[in-house]
């Protein structure tokens, strides 16, 4: 007689316990990864246009991590580390690369030779792919090394700092100033207005082509001229902003050492015979000089009086003699 094997009652219990443990581990794993999965599914749902909890999760997530990092950099905040929960300075080192910044600077340097220093400053600008926008210099003809020079340099923004440092090494730096102005918002606004105004001009040109009467043509042309003038003004503003952001401006002043002699200390009046003699001779020379000057001023008048007065005196004298001579003496 064949006997069938009997199943031990402990085996089903162990199997059920093992299955329960597996189910519990699976549920814990699903809970730990549920946040990431729901966010991923939310992004897929929002991109496909379907609603639900997935789109809500997608809306809660920042759309631009770089923008968030830039905001935290501007506000001076530290980004929390999701893994450790501590702060990190990574966001503070992320600098925007598409900003429009206007760099300006000025420096005053005392140099031994103004002319040579001006040539070296020009070489620094041209070596950095810049230009010398203007230059004005004044020198003493007797001492060409002395004087003052003022230069306006335009260099690329990347060479702004190195060029400023190079200029300071031309001599003794007396003064330095530098500034940076962010005009990104202004440039974006002007660029947007230029595009909008261009579209407006294009629409008016279409209307001009559709005008039927002379009155309509005149009216549309007047409006077109006004809008084109506004467009040109906006384009000029945009060109100016691009110019000041493409090249930084440096005002350089080169001065020579002060050659003014040190004043001699006055110990009081100088007294004595020789001092009096020198003073008397100086006064006599001054009086003689004044007398000669007056004589020179009167000489033309004396000459005119002599030329006219002497002949007149002689004529009058002759007439007086004729009048006083007796008639008898005249007959004899």
What does this protein look like?
The protein has 332 residues and is an alpha+beta fold. The protein is flat and about 125 Å long. It has ten helices and seven strands. 59% of the residues lie in helices and 17% in strands. It has helices at residues 10-32, 34-48, 53-60, 65-75, 114-127, 160-168, 184-210, 214-246, 273-324, 327-331; strands spanning 79-80, 87-88, 101-110, 131-140, 143-155, 172-182, 248-255. The strands form two sheets. The chain has a five-stranded mixed beta sheet with strand order 4-5-7-3-6. Mean pLDDT is 73; it is low at 1-13 and 28-95. Among the domains are: 101-182, 2-Layer Sandwich (Alpha-Beta Plaits), CATH 3.30.70.260; 184-243.
Q: Any descriptors?
A:
Alpha-Beta Plaits; flat; single chain; 59% helix; 17% strand
List the helices and strands and how they pair.
Layout: H1 10-32, H2 34-48, H3 53-60, H4 65-75, E1 79-80, E2 87-88, E3 101-110, H5 114-127, E4 131-140, E5 143-155, H6 160-168, E6 172-182, H7 184-210, H8 214-246, E7 248-255, H9 273-324, H10 327-331
Parallel strand pairs: 3-7
Antiparallel strand pairs: 1-2, 3-6, 4-5, 5-7
Helix pairs in contact: 2-3, 7-8
Task: Give a summary of the structure in a few sentences.
By secondary structure, the protein is α+β, with helices and mostly antiparallel strands. The protein has helices at 10-32, 34-48, 53-60, 65-75, 114-127, 160-168, 184-210, 214-246, 273-324, 327-331; strands at residues 79-80, 87-88, 101-110, 131-140, 143-155, 172-182, 248-255. The protein is flat and about 125 Å long.
């Amino acid at each position: 007689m064949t006997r069938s094997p009997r199943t031990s009652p402990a085996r089903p219990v162990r199997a059920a316990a093992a299955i329960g443990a597996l189910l519990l581990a699976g549920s814990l794993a699903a809970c730990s990864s549920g946040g990431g999965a729901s966010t991923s599914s939310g992004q897929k749902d929002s991109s496909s246009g379907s609603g639900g909890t997935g789109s809500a999760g997608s809306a809660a997530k920042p759309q631009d991590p770089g923008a968030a990092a830039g905001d935290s950099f501007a506000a001076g905040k530290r980004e929390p580390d999701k893994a450790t929960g501590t702060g990190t300075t990574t966001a503070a080192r992320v600098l925007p690369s598409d900003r429009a910044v206007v760099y300006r600077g000025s420096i005053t340097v005392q140099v031994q030779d103004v002319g040579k220093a001006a040539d070296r400053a020009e070489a620094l600008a041209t070596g950095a792919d810049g230009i010398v926008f203007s230059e004005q210099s004044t020198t003493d003809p007797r001492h060409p090394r002395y004087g003052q020079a003022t230069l306006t340099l335009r260099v690329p923004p990347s060479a702004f700092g190195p060029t400023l440092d190079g200029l300071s090494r031309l001599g003794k730096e007396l003064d330095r100033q530098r500034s940076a102005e962010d005009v990104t918002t202004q440039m974006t606004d002007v660029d947007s207005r230029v595009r909008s105004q261009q579209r407006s001009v294009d629409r008016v040109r279409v209307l001009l082509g559709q005008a039927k009467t002379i009155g309509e043509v005149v009216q549309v042309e007047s409006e077109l001229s006004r809008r084109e003038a506004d467009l040109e003004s906006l384009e000029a503003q945009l060109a100016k902003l691009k110019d000041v952001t493409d090249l930084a401006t440096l005002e350089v002043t080169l001065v020579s050492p002060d050659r003014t002699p040190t004043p001699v200390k006055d110990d009081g009046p100088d007294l004595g015979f020789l001092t009096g003699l020198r003073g008397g001779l100086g006064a006599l020379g001054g009086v003689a000089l004044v007398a000669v000057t007056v004589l020179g001023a009167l000489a033309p008048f004396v000459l005119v009086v002599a030329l006219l007065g002497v002949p007149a005196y002689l004529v009058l004298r002759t007439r007086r003699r004729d009048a006083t001579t007796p008639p008898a003496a005249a007959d004899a």
